[in-house]
Amino acid sequence: MQSLIVYDSLYGNTQKIAEAVGGDMDGEARVVSVGEADLAGLKDINFLVVGSPTHGGRPTQALQKFLQNMPENSLKNIKVAAFDTRVLASEQGFWPRLFVNTIGYAAPKIARNLQSKGGILVVEPEGFIVEGKEGPLKKGELERASEWAKKICKEAQA
């Protein structure tokens, strides 16, 4: 399976998750930052995983631009998955928790965008937890990312 993992990362946490996912994908997996991603290369893959930090309930601007620039149906017959890094709403104060509960996280928005380009979503969007705005990742999240990658591969082959 030819996989591409595209991510944006501001403090390195999302990059670490992307690398953990890429390390446990079946077959050949390339992990690239959104600035290095080539839309023309999408035709050469079987699987696309996209991840971003959550900022204001959305992916980063760079990742949003990448998704917007994807041609219609460019992901037809390509299996896809989406993830984000986020703080836990339940660990925030009342107003931040209300804000997060109202606007949500980046991963579901990424997944909808991938599906709108023809992608076949094989697992529900996933969120990986950071402690505070800049991190670090919560203990056990890299291991959870590896397990998520294995689940993706299993579902993609089903």
Blueprint of the fold:
Elements: E1 2-7, H1 13-23, E2 28-33, E3 47-53, H2 61-69, E4 79-86, H3 94-103, H4 106-116, E5 120-121, E6 126-129, H5 141-157
Parallel strand pairs: 1-2, 1-3, 3-4, 4-5, 4-6
Structure write-up:
37% of the residues lie in helices and 21% in strands. It starts with a strand and ends with a helix. Helix 1 crosses helix 5 (141-157). The longest helix is centred in the C-terminal third of the chain and has 17 residues, at 141-157. The chain has 158 residues and is an alpha/beta fold. Strands 1, 2, 3, 4, 5 and 6 form a 6-stranded parallel β-sheet that branches.
Helix content: 25-40%
Q: Would you report the number of β strands?
A: 6
> In sequence order, what are the helices and strands, one letter per element?
EHEEHEHHEEH
Enumerate the spans where pLDDT stays under 50 for 5 or more consecutive residues.
none
Number of domains: 1
Main beta sheet, described?
6 strands, parallel
Descriptors:
single chain; 158 residues; alpha/beta; Rossmann fold; six-stranded parallel β-sheet; 5 helices; 37% helix; globular
Q: How would you concisely characterize the structure shown here?
A:
The chain has a single domain (2-157), classed as Rossmann fold (3-Layer(aba) Sandwich). It has five helices and six strands, in the order E-H-E-E-H-E-H-H-E-E-H.
